[in-house]
Amino acid sequence: MNFLDHIIRFTGPFNLTGLPAVTVPCGFAQGLPIGMQIVGPAFQEGKILNIADVFEKLHPELKQNPIVLKQ
């Protein structure tokens, strides 16, 4: 898989269809941040941005810096 395919594999379908999408932090796995992608119906950008805003306000602990693991 080339670099471009790797970085757009989760966003590409929504870029092609024009559906609005946003990603918010939703936790950590082995000290690394994980994001949750919220996708909405066409022309409903405000709706998904409101959902993302509410999620981030309900979970402020998810905005912390990731823990650096030593190997």
UniProtKB/TrEMBL annotation:
Q: Pinpoint the Amidase domain residues.
A: 2-49
Q: Which domain of life is it from?
A: Bacteria
Show the GO MF annotations.
catalytic activity
UniProt family annotation: Belongs to the amidase family.
Coiled-coil region: none
The residues the entry assigns to the signal sequence are none
Protein name in the entry: Asp-tRNA(Asn)/Glu-tRNA(Gln) amidotransferase A subunit family amidase
